[in-house]
Every structure is written in C-alpha cells, then in structure tokens.
Amino acid sequence: MRDVWGIHDFTPDWQALTPRQHAMVQRGAGPGDGIPGGPSGCGYYRITQPLDALAGMGWDVGYGAGEPPCNPAAAREARVIIAQRMDKHSALPYWRRWRAWQPLIYEIDDNVFEVDVTNWQAYRTYSKGDIQDAVSQAASVADIVTVTTGPLADVMSQFNPEVRVVPNTVDERVLAIDRCRQPKVVVGWMGGASHARDIALIAPTLRTMLDRHGKKAELHIVGTDFRPTVGRDARYTDWVPVRANLDFYRTIDFDIGLAPLTGTRFDQSKSAIKAIEYNALGIPVLASDCEPYRDFIQDGVNGYLCRSKQDWGRRLEELISDKAAREQLGAAGRELVRANHTMVTGVKAWAAVLGEVM
C-alpha cells in the first residue's frame, strides 16, 4: 500500500493557460478537458515539493490535481491522504468516504476567510459562502489540519483543534543557483495580482528611486505587470510557474528584493516565503514591518524591516549605493536559509505530522 497520496489544485493553474484554454475555462472546462491542473505555487510548496522530498527518503508517495479529486482509486489505496485547500462541495463526498477508511490531513496555506476585495482573483472565489463552508467542513472532518503559520493556525483551530504548523521552505538546490548579474543595480519584486495595494504602497518611493538613480539602477517586476502602478519604465518578466526544475528562480536577477505588505488580516496569516526565496538566492530583503516578516528579517543581518515610507526610501538609497552591504546581507541571508528554511529541515516536519496518523 502506498504511504501517502496528495491532492492539490482544484482550480487550473491560470499562469500556464494559453488564451484558448482561458476561454475554455470561462465556459466551465477543467482538468478533464485538457486544462492543466498544476501544481500552482501553493500546490508546489505544500504538496508536490514535500512529497517529492519524502520520496527521496524512501517513502512511497503519489499526487495529482483536479476536481473532483483526481484518481479516487489511487487515493483510496494510500495509508494517508493529504489534500491542499479542498474547497468544493463536489469533493466533500469523496473526502467523507475516505475518512471512514484512512486518516486525512487537510492542508491550507492562506486565510481564505479574510481575502481582501483588491485580490480579485481569490476574492471572487473565497468570498462565496459555499466555498468557505466547504473549507470549514473539510477541515473539520480531517484528523489533522496543516498550516504555514501560527496566525493561520489560530484561524483554522475554530474548525479543528488538531492543527499543526509546518512552515514553508525552499528546495536546497536554490542555494546553489548563481543568479544572473546585470550592469545596473536591480531592484526587484515578484508576485501575483493580489498585491495591488502592496505595490501602490511603495510606488512613490520607486518613482523617486528611478528618477534619481535611473543611470545605475533599474526596476524588475516578475509575475503581475504592475508597471502602470509604478508609472515609470521597468523591466517585466511574466510568471514562470514554480516547478521542481527551478526555472522560476532563474528569472530572479535582483540585487535588492522588495516585499511590501499593507498588513491586512489576510496578510497576517501569510508566510515569509518571498523573503526566504530572495535570501536563498543571496538577495537582501526590504520588507514591510508586519507579521509574515518580523520573525524572519533581522535588521542589518539579512535585510531591513521598513516601518514608514521614509524607511523604504532610505534603505533603498543605502543599498543601491553600497555593493558591499548588499553582498554582506545577501550572504548572511543565504546562510540563514541554509540553516533553517530548506526542505532538508521541512521534510522532517512533514514526516512527523504524517507519522502521527500512520
């Protein structure tokens, strides 16, 4: 019998869709119609990456995507099933039946009950009562709920008292990537459409930076094209899905990594994965002084926490002008990630949780 079967991505990986596939999804098509099912970033960090790591330790694992849960027979034959954000009522009958046969772990990495309206892609889904109800029911049926952070554990504990925090980590191979260096100092940001308010927070600072240092510094945006928000010329790279081939990380050529957040209730349950990934590549981080980053960023060690608009401007000025400081902070950040935030450590946490129910 297989040890673990993982289920991820009940909605398609939108970043991987062609225009024709986008149109098919709008008409109701899904994985059974040739639409890719992931993994999305969430599916990668929380299902495929940890299960691949467990396979490297000799575990017999498998995973798949889709709605209703792909390959129910394969899931039924596993000793444990772990499902990431099972959020459709159509999946609940499978989930409840499996509960009679084997242990279940419900995995969730965002506070879907507090999605801000500006995060339009997620809001149009998770603002619906039936979706939130499906999440709460699936969590309550599970033996254990796994989450990324303590604040998210507090949210999910109202549905199931057996909540375990398993932090996000990066593949240790990321530490060995020698990122591409550009002639100019690259100030960079990466992320999805949910960050409109976050980019707006630092847009005035970025405009000032580019106006003042345009001959020696540039802005590189990866993911969602927020150049109109910034209002200045910048380099843009479309999102490369996070996969085991690590191609996503090779698009990141930053010398300074930005991680702004406005600090909403949704933000407070997020993980520090963006900053962890920057540091893993040897990139110092400028991050908002809010919940996801306070326990990871150490001022003057691996980056800086910014508490005001003046902080963003001052720290950018310092790091653009001081290559030695950038290199020192980046090197320290990489060692911090190596010691505490790779899947070498993370897989042990996943194994411990799975071991509770096996």
Structure description:
It is a single chain. By secondary structure, the chain is an alpha/beta fold. Helix content is 41%, strand content 17%. It has 15 helices and twelve strands. It has helices at 19-26, 41-56, 72-76, 92-99, 120-126, 129-141, 150-156, 196-213, 227-230, 247-250, 273-280, 291-294, 309-321, 323-340, 343-357; strands at 2-8, 61-65, 78-84, 104-107, 144-147, 163-165, 185-191, 217-223, 235-238, 256-259, 285-288, 303-306. Helix 2 crosses helix 15. It starts with a strand and ends with a helix. The model is unreliable at 12-17 and 21-38 (pLDDT under 50).
Main beta sheet, described? 6 strands, parallel
Give the helix tally.
15
Query: Which fold name is given in CATH as the topology of the largest domain?
Result: Rossmann fold
Structural class: alpha/beta
Number of strands: 12
Give the N-terminus to C-terminus distance in angstroms.
12 Å
Layout of SSEs?
Layout: E1 2-8, H1 19-26, H2 41-56, E2 61-65, H3 72-76, E3 78-84, H4 92-99, E4 104-107, H5 120-126, H6 129-141, E5 144-147, H7 150-156, E6 163-165, E7 185-191, H8 196-213, E8 217-223, H9 227-230, E9 235-238, H10 247-250, E10 256-259, H11 273-280, E11 285-288, H12 291-294, E12 303-306, H13 309-321, H14 323-340, H15 343-357
Parallel strand pairs: 1-2, 1-3, 3-4, 4-5, 5-6, 7-8, 7-10, 8-9, 10-11, 11-12
Q: Which terms would index this structure?
A:
6-stranded parallel beta sheet; 358 residues; Rossmann fold; 2 domains; 15 helices; alpha/beta; 41% helix
